[in-house]
Task: inverse folding
């Protein structure tokens, strides 16, 4: 079955998008809408088909990967790009979990979106998202990746603003798109810089790698380093937008306005990790520019720490998970920053499982409470929704890194790589470990507030609490299984390195070129410290929140006071830029434009006055008019004669 | 024949429309649709058929000019696409206007056809007098239509529009006359020869007059005073044509009648590029503040065209295809947005953003289409707008990092105002009643949807637009040479190449390439990652071109020699005639 063409994978969700989109538009007039069962079946079928083809291809993939060029895309002077696909170790792993988790979440959404007016529209968007994400991951050139890159951003916009009758949702969606656009300009400029040094041909990943290899073997590294650094920095700005890193992270917490399956799929498992994917994809370039890598590490570290602390302050269950996602993404960038691209992708992989499970669990909780998201009004739900609680607990164990669970393996790996990364290593490691403690604290807080203690909501709402339907529970359980088991693909201390070997052909050479002074470290020490951090965090949370009375929930769930300043720090900074733009726009509107209009009015006024003057000739003075006419004719004749006659 | 039809038949159609009923829009619209479809079919045939040219017919002599003006048309890829925009948008405008401007549809259609004829003439003219004639003629039907069918301030806006644009091109008329006193006749190639040999200071004055006319028409900051009020007061179908097709006449003029004719000095080029960028920023900022939906769209168009003009004057190799794609994309997307906004205004009776809202819920099909077209206007990759914008960005990057950064800023701002627009119009709470009988009809919806699908198609396969891009075909050159009795083989070659040549101010010296050069090129290409086959085919092409060029040069030398002989005998006679 190796002859299955690569373009089949994106084709399926594309068909799904078109089909569902047409149905959505046609049926939008009718009151009842099409049958949910039918639409749901279609919506799951196409992602599942895509997943099946990925599995088939993945099983038969040769070590060097599959490449196919579909056709030409843009062919103008200076810019020649093909539509081509590249299926190698990296895209295989990304595609497996993107389509796999995508299918599961589509299944979950059938239950979650039951009875919504925009049922069909929702699944059209989900399929469009999967199409764009597959293109992003599968493409063999930066420009086609950018198509997916903006495509997923567009779907994110559409899905955040899915319930568009509420203006606040629309504003969150606009914010997500615009902040991402800022990052996307970075991506665009990065591509332009690369075009400057190698023409549009090196937008292709293989050509780029070949080009860089040629530079390295030819010893011309010094000449291109400034360009490569600039390009790397631009691409990293693009990544900070898409993957919600400092400074472009403000959109992700707001993005929680969308339906919860969307938060699980787009804003936790897949789209936000595409920045990490891009870094790994361009690893051969990034290893040449250690300065940029240091910037990436520092940004990742700050983001991880800042977001973890912000996660402590949230009362909205989805907001906690949103900040947690940002924090975990920070870990991934730290790993990429010390050139441990395989470790960062491994964390992307495990994170996809446990964070999707957490979000889906939170979605099930919200669903059972009829839309309540404030954790201060929850409590004691473990007895009422036991399956959801179980799933969440397993995922919780994974994210805080209890030994044996997925997060333990990947997070420890990152911390270990940080420690051995160089002179600054122990410092990065320390911050990482501290962040791990905070992670354990806020996650335990979430679990305690939601599932333990007494129920704090109103009496009548308590009666309606129910476990989610099976089509929601099955994906949750499967993801929880992933959260437990996914780590064993790369459990170095017990000798399993499947994952590392799978990525070796893609990132191995690049990583080998920056081998750090291999300090001899005992992995058991790291494992022990990591576990201790997790347990310490749980203990702190238990002491602080276990027995304490939870303050009565009043007003909005947003944090207040100093906590708000910390949480919204970057919103405040973005606010300055928005204000600046508005001021400039005001000046343009009220000063420059008025000036232009004034000049126009002035000229028109002068002409009018002159016209009035000329009109005074228009009186009944026959002689004067006759004289003027004669003078005019004479003038005309003179002009004609002077310029050479009529012929 | 096709060219004659495209330019003259719209006027005949306009006359025939007089015969239809004034009161009954149904019957008169049938004939109008029929004509509209025929013109679209013709312009598609024009694009499919490649470059064409007509016989040059002597038209009249301008007092003082050295030679006659010709009625002469030719088509290049650029002009054929502009003609398609003009006919296509006119057709969709006629379709949506049937329900929007019910009263006296017949007269509206007459105006639209007259406008279409004038626009086609502008794009297809190969003679500068003819070009200028149509360039000015466009204004009249447009102004009459604004005055007849516009909004509350229609008289004022029609006056502003007509006077501003006519006054803007008045200096060009004078400059044109001056050029004609120097040129053998007014055909494109004679004008090139005349201008190139002109005294530098005179050349510069002429250039400024030409630039002024085109900057007013586009419009480029600070000559945009007429635009917002005209676009917002004009009936929406007309606004769609004005922005989608007529404003292109300015950019078209800059490419065909400025870049080709004048040897450009770097100062003018960079000034124009920065003016274009300033327009782009200015348009985006004004759109961010606009509260009138049609004004917002007007400023958004201004921003996009500013970017296009900046792209034109970045003068890199990729300039022409990138700008062409950008223009086509803008014509379709901005046109579709104006048409949709016209329908929205018809349904709700207002176009103030604060009073609109929630249309996605009330009229889902309209909402979906509106959102879809807005996404196209955002230039998301995969749409034609992206190909154009990225090409222009690449071209600007070649001119320097700062222009590219400014263009990037505009792209961010365009997302900001476009999303605000979408949010205010179709999302949020519903604030206004929707008149049921005035909803979007299936015909309107599908015709706008076709425009949106075309944008996607051109975005995924821009080769539809960019393949076989040519400026002046060989047949056109031959015809112009025949008409003016001189050989233009060499200037024609230059006009093809002058874009790249003008960039560094060096005349393209077409020295044949040596074997050494080919080897050098081959290794360069290899370094840039071209495959074996690609390199081989490229070099083969180059070799063929080289050979052709050598042949052409030999021919041209012969023709030159004969032409000189002929000129030597004719010249005294001609001079005698002039005196």
Result:
């Amino acid at each position: 079955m190796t002859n299955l063409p690569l373009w089949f994978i994106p084709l399926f969700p594309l068909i799904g998008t078109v089909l569902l989109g047409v149905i959505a538009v046609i049926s939008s007039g009718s009151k009842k809408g099409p049958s949910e069962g039918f639409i749901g079946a279609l919506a799951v079928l196409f992602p599942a088909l895509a997943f099946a083809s990925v599995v088939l291809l993945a099983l038969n993939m040769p070590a060097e990967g599959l490449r196919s060029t579909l056709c030409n895309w843009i062919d103008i002077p200076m810019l020649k790009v093909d539509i081509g696909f590249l299926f190698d170790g990296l895209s295989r792993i990304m595609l497996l979990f993107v389509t796999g988790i995508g299918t599961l979440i589509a299944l979950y959404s059938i239950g979650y979106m039951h009875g919504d007016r925009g049922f069909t529209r929702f699944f059209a968007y989900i399929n469009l998202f999967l199409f764009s994400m597959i293109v992003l991951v599968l493409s063999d050139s930066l420009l086609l990746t950018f198509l997916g890159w903006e495509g997923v951003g567009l779907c994110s916009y559409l899905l955040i603003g899915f319930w568009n009758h509420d203006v606040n949702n629309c504003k969150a969606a606009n914010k997500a798109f615009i902040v991402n656009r800022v990052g996307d300009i970075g991506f665009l400029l990065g591509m332009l810089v690369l075009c400057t040094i190698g023409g549009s041909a090196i937008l292709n990943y293989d050509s780029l790698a070949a080009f860089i290899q040629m530079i390295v073997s030819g010893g011309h590294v010094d000449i291109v380093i400034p360009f490569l650094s600039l390009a790397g920095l631009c691409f990293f700005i693009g990544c900070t937008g898409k993957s919600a890193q400092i400074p472009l992270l403000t959109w992700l917490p707001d993005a929680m306005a969308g339906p919860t399956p969307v938060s699980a799929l787009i804003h936790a498992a897949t789209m936000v990790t595409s920045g990490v994917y891009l870094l790994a994809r361009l690893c051969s370039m990034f290893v040449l520019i250690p300065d940029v890598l240091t910037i990436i590490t520092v940004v990742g570290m700050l983001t991880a720490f800042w977001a973890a602390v912000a996660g402590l302050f949230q009362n909205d269950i989805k907001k906690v998970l949103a900040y947690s996602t940002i924090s975990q993404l920070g870990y991934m960038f730290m790993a990429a920053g010390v050139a441990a691209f395989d470790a960062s992708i491994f964390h992307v992989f495990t994170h996809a499982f446990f964070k999707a499970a957490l979000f889906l669990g939170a979605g099930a909780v919200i669903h059972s409470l009829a839309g309540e998201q404030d954790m201060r009004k929850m409590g004691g739900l473990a007895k009422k929704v036991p399956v959801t609680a179980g799933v969440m607990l397993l995922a919780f164990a994974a994210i805080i890194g209890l030994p044996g669970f997925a997060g333990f393996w990947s997070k420890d790996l990152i911390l270990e790589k940080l420690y051995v990364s160089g002179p600054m290593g122990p410092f990065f490691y320390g911050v990482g470990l501290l962040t791990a403690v905070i992670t354990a604290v806020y996650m335990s807080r979430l679990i305690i507030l939601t599932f333990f203690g007494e129920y704090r909501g109103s009496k009548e709402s308590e009666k309606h609490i129910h476990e989610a339907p099976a089509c929601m529970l099955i994906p949750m359980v499967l993801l929880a299984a992933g959260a437990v088991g996914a780590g064993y693909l790369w459990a170095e201390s017990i000798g399993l390195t499947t994952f590392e070997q799978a990525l070796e052909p893609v990132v191995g050479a690049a990583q080998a070129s920056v081998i750090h002074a291999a300090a001899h470290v005992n992995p058991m020490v790291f494992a022990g410290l990591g576990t201790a951090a997790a347990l310490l965090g749980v203990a702190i949370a238990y002491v602080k929140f276990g027995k304490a009375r939870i303050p009565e929930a009043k007003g909005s769930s947003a944090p207040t006071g100093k906590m708000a300043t910390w949480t919204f720090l970057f919103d405040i900074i973005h606010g300055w830029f928005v204000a600046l733009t508005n001021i400039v726009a005001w000046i343009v509107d009220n000063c420059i434009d008025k000036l232009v209009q004034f000049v126009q009015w002035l000229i028109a006024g002068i002409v009018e006055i002159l016209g009035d003057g000329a009109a005074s000739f228009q009186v009944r003075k026959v002689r004067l008019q006759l004289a003027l006419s004669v003078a005019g004719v004479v003038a005309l004749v003179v002009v004609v004669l002077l310029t050479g006659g009529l012929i | 024949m096709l060219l004659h039809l495209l330019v003259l038949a719209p006027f005949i159609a306009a006359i025939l429309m007089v015969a239809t009923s004034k009161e009954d829009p149904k019957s008169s619209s049938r004939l109008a649709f029929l004509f509209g479809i025929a013109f679209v079919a013709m312009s598609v045939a024009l694009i499919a058929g490649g470059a064409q040219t007509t016989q040059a017919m002597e038209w009249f002599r301008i007092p003082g000019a050295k030679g006659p003006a010709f009625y002469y048309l030719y088509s290049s890829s650029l002009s054929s696409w502009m003609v398609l925009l003009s006919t296509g948008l006119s057709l969709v405008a006629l379709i949506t206007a049937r329900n929007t401007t019910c009263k006296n549809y017949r007269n509206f259609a007459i105006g639209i056809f007259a406008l279409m004829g004038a626009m086609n003439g502008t794009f297809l003219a190969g003679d500068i007098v003819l070009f200028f004639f149509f360039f000015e003629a466009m204004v009249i039907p447009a102004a009459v239509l604004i005055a007849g069918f516009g909004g509350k301030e229609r008289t004022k806006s029609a006056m502003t529009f007509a006077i501003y644009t006519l006054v803007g091109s008045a200096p060009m008329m004078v400059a044109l006359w001056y050029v004609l006193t120097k040129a053998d006749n007014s055909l494109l190639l004679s004008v090139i020869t005349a201008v190139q040999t002109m005294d530098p200071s005179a050349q510069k004055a002429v250039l400024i007059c030409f630039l002024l006319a085109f900057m007013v028409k586009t419009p480029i900051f600070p000559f945009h005073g007429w635009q917002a009020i005209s676009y917002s007061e004009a009936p929406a179908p007309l606004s769609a044509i004005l922005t989608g097709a007529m404003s292109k006449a300015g950019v078209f003029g800059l490419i065909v009648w400025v870049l080709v004719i004048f040897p450009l000095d770097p100062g003018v080029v960079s000034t124009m590029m920065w003016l274009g960028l300033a327009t782009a920023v200015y348009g985006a900022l004004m759109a961010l503040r606009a509260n009138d939906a049609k004004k917002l769209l007007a400023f958004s168009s201004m921003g996009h065209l500013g970017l296009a003009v900046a792209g034109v004057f970045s003068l890199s190799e990729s300039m022409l295809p990138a700008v062409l794609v950008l223009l086509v994309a803008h014509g379709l997307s901005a046109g579709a947005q104006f048409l949709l906004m016209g329908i929205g205004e018809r349904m709700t009776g207002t176009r103030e953003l604060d009073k609109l809202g929630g249309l996605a819920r009330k009229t889902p099909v309209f909402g979906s289409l509106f959102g879809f077209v807005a996404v196209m206007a955002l230039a998301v990759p995969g749409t034609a707008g992206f190909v154009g914008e990225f090409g222009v960005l690449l071209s600007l990057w070649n001119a320097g990092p700062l222009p590219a950064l400014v263009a990037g800023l505009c792209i961010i701002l365009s997302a900001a105002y476009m999303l605000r627009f979408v949010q205010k119009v179709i999302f949020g709470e519903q604030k206004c009643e929707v008149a049921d009988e005035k909803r979007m009809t299936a015909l309107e919806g599908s015709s706008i949807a076709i425009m949106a699908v075309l944008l996607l198609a051109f975005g995924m396969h821009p080769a539809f637009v960019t393949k076989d891009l040519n400026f002046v075909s060989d047949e056109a050159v031959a015809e112009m040479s025949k008409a003016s009795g001189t050989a233009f083989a060499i200037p024609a070659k230059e006009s093809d190449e002058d874009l790249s040549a003008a960039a560094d101010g060096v005349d393209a010296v077409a020295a044949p390439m040596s074997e050494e050069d080919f080897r050098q090129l081959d290794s360069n290409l290899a370094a840039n990652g071209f495959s074996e086959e690609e390199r081989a085919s490229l070099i083969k092409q180059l070799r063929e071109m080289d050979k052709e060029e050598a042949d052409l040069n030999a021919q041209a030398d012969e023709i030159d020699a004969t032409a000189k002989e002929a000129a030597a005998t004719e010249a005294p006679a001609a001079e005698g005639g002039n005196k």
Summary: The mean pLDDT of chain A is 87. The radius of gyration of chain A is 30 Å. Chain A has three domains: 1-140, 290-550, 575-642. Chain A touches chain B through 69 residues (CB under 8 Å).
